[in-house]
Amino acid sequence: VSDATLAQIERSLRPEMPTTGGTHGQLDQPERRREFTSIELDAEVSDVQLSAIAGAVRSQWRDIGLRLGFSLAEMDDFEQRRNSTHQCLLDIFAAWKRREHRATIGAILNICKDVGVEGAARAALQRDK
């Protein structure tokens, strides 16, 4: 993945922050923005991070699994083996990591964005720090 592609992904995932002016103890915009973009999007996603994300977005586990390239039959297999959606999603993430050359935080956040749970995934990553 090129640097330009990573930069584009990061820009699309970055929340817009209002300018505060930086007076009276308030943080100016660049300092506040750094707080929200401290997640290294091109870093390999860890099992701990995936577990945090899975806990936050488990209601969308099927959509996430499909976006990660698993078939409906594979999704049914994941469901048959596990008794919770959190565990299903952990299995899906583990299988995805085995398949990918390099599974990154940016890639998983992009998938979460596609299914409408990016905010919950980012919040889980921020709490996990």
| Helix-strand pattern | HHHHHHHH
**Mean of all residue-level pLDDT scores:** 78
Alpha-carbon distance between the two ends: 26 Å
| Largest sheet descriptor | none
Q: What share of the residues does DSSP label as strand, in percent?
A: under 5%
Total DSSP E strands: 0
Gross morphology: globular
Cα radius of gyration in angstroms: 16 Å
Number of helices: 8
What share of residues is helical?
Answer: 55-70%
SS-based structural class? mainly alpha
Q: Flag low-confidence runs.
A: 15-36
List its traits.
129 residues
What does this structure look like?
The protein is mainly alpha-helical and 129 residues long. The chain contains eight helices and no strands. Helix 5 packs across helix 6. The protein is globular and about 35 Å long.
Quick recap:
This protein has 129 residues and is an all-alpha fold. It has helices at 3-13, 29-36, 47-57, 61-67, 72-81, 85-99, 105-114, 118-128.
Write the layout of secondary structure elements.
Elements: H1 3-13, H2 29-36, H3 47-57, H4 61-67, H5 72-81, H6 85-99, H7 105-114, H8 118-128
